[in-house]
Automatic annotation (TrEMBL):
<feature type="compositionally biased region" description="Basic and acidic residues">
    <location>
        <begin position="10"/>
        <end position="22"/>
    </location>
</feature>
<dbReference type="InterPro" id="IPR057326">
    <property type="entry name" value="KR_dom"/>
</dbReference>
<keyword id="KW-0560">Oxidoreductase</keyword>
<dbReference type="InterPro" id="IPR036291">
    <property type="entry name" value="NAD(P)-bd_dom_sf"/>
</dbReference>
<dbReference type="InterPro" id="IPR002347">
    <property type="entry name" value="SDR_fam"/>
</dbReference>
<dbReference type="InterPro" id="IPR020904">
    <property type="entry name" value="Sc_DH/Rdtase_CS"/>
</dbReference>
<comment type="similarity">
    <text>Belongs to the short-chain dehydrogenases/reductases (SDR) family.</text>
</comment>
<protein>
    <submittedName>
        <fullName>Glucose 1-dehydrogenase</fullName>
        <ecNumber>1.1.1.47</ecNumber>
    </submittedName>
</protein>
<feature type="region of interest" description="Disordered">
    <location>
        <begin position="1"/>
        <end position="22"/>
    </location>
</feature>
<feature type="domain" description="Ketoreductase">
    <location>
        <begin position="41"/>
        <end position="220"/>
    </location>
</feature>
<dbReference type="GO" id="GO:0047936">
    <property type="term" value="F:glucose 1-dehydrogenase [NAD(P)+] activity"/>
</dbReference>
<dbReference type="Pfam" id="PF13561">
    <property type="entry name" value="adh_short_C2"/>
</dbReference>
Length: 284
């Protein structure tokens, strides 16, 4: 059985760089047909420079939304995403900083309101992961940093954005299949994704009386810069082979789930997770 799905490769730094990947991820399928589902809306997308964030930004632009890309320091990837949004007829701004810092989250919201005067969609997508073979090797600093980026950031940004979210607004959080299946090498990451799933469900109930929907997407193995910057070249070469579909997914295969959840097509959907994971049945 051939379990090789990608060329072996590794990047030494996190966050990873999309333009250094081979092949580069597919962020838009040739047969995608937009229908103006997000016309006039304004979206904030964390981790918006590359991977799933880039794919969501381009799809949202095609659907008529203006997008604010929030990223850490991957300037070249962020510029590429800005260019692609523009090429597809959209409007975007890019804001660099650490979403684990509450004061930066306030700056993001202030900048978007100053630019467009509204926020309709909040995509909490930024994340990091650092594999360790056992709990003893996982130090407190890494544990805290992963939680700060992956779940504290959602708390900070959602809290400051809520002042500007009106009935009909949508919050979409990126969880992971690891929240449901676990991962022996990603103890801190999997734990944050479980927290994100619970945060999504609880916040959806909390905000339902205000007419704000809260949902999530739980991707499986998706080919993004996080992968070569996390795993060894040998692990990358086998990435996604253990799914029922036998391959990793592309960001372009995840982004339509974010379009659906933000659009009026999902007007009766809140507190839910969409599992875009290559066929793993997780019942959650």
């Amino acid at each position: 059985m051939n379990d090789k799905t990608l060329p072996a490769q590794h990047q030494e730094r996190q966050p990873g760089i999309e333009h250094a990947m081979h092949p580069e991820p597919v962020y838009l399928a040739d047969d995608y047909r937009a229908a103006g589902k997000l016309a006039g809306k304004v979206a904030i997308i964390t981790g918006g420079d590359s991977g799933i964030g880039r794919a969501v930004a381009v799809h949202y632009a095609l659907e008529g939304a203006r997008v604010a890309l929030v990223y850490l320091n991957e300037d070249e990837d962020a510029q590429k995403t800005l260019d692609e949004v523009s090429r597809h007829g959209g409007e975007a701004i890019a804001l660099a900083g650490d979403v684990g810092d509450g004061s930066f989250c306030q700056c993001v919201v202030d900048a978007v309101i100053a630019k467009w005067g509204r926020i309709d969609i909040l995509i909490n997508n930024a994340g990091e992961q650092h594999p360790e073979h056992n709990l003893e090797a996982l130090d407190e600093a890494q544990w805290e940093k992963t939680f700060r980026t992956n779940i504290f950031a959602m708390f900070h940004l959602t809290k400051v954005a809520l002042e500007h979210l009106q009935p009909g607004a949508s919050i979409i959080n990126t969880s992971s299949v690891t929240a449901y299946k676990g991962n022996p090498m990603l103890l801190d990451y999997s734990s944050t994704k479980g927290a994100i799933t619970s945060f999504t469900r609880s916040l959806s109930i909390n905000l339902a009386p205000r007419g704000i929907r809260v949902n999530g997407v739980a991707p499986g193995p998706i080919w993004t810069p996080l992968i070569p910057s996390t795993f060894s070249a040998e692990k990358v070469a086998e990435f996604g082979a253990d799914t029922p579909l036998g391959r990793p997914g592309q960001p372009a295969e995840v982004a339509p789930a974010f379009v659906y959840l933000a659009s009026n097509d999902a007007s009766y959907v809140t507190g839910q997770m969409l599992h875009v994971n290559g066929g793993s049945v997780v019942n959650g």
